[in-house]
Amino acid sequence: MLKRLLIVGGFLVLSGLAFGCLYMMNSKSIDKVAKSANDVKIVQSTDVEFVYKKDSLKDDCAKDDMVFCAIERAVKCTINPDMEICDRESIPSFILGKVEDDIRPNEIGFNIVKIKPVEGGRDISVYTKSQCDASWFGLCNGTVIYLLSPSNDAWKVVNIYALEE
């Protein structure tokens, strides 16, 4: 009987240690991403405009910046949701929805105006000046705001808003 108790107790201790290690590793990677948002806080507007056209899209990111890459992925998937990089885990699912071809844009351009943290959380809002060649539910012309959340060691776009001008 004592032997069984020792075996069960040892198993529980090892299981607890394993789950504790997994929890700590996961929280550290999210903290690493969240700290990068606090370093950025506010970015001033730049004159650099990034333009994406349906016939020249590539899967790789144009810059070595996790926030930029998350927005770029959302833009590319808005234009062509059949790309390999487009999945429901990293962009809002409405982007992947089937719509008529004349509604979906063939070209989108944007420049980042500012990045600011959302109060009370780890999310950030990225303000852009955008333009496109379609209406796309009003989400690609004017001031478009991308709401990003930390996801593993990267950022993902969780929602998109537009300001009425």
Protein architecture, described:
The chain is of the alpha+beta class and 165 residues long. 32% of the residues lie in helices and 27% in strands. It has 2 helices and 5 strands. It has a 5-stranded antiparallel sheet with strand order 1-2-3-4-5. Residues 27-35 and 40-44 have low confidence and may be disordered.
**Spatial arrangement of strands, main beta sheet:** 1-2-3-4-5
Helix coverage percent: 25-40%
Number of separate helices: 2
Strand content: 25-35%
* Cα Rg: 21 Å
Structural class: alpha+beta
The helix/strand order is: HEHEEEE
pLDDT averaged over residues: 80
Brief digest:
This protein is α+β, with helices and mostly antiparallel strands and 165 residues long.
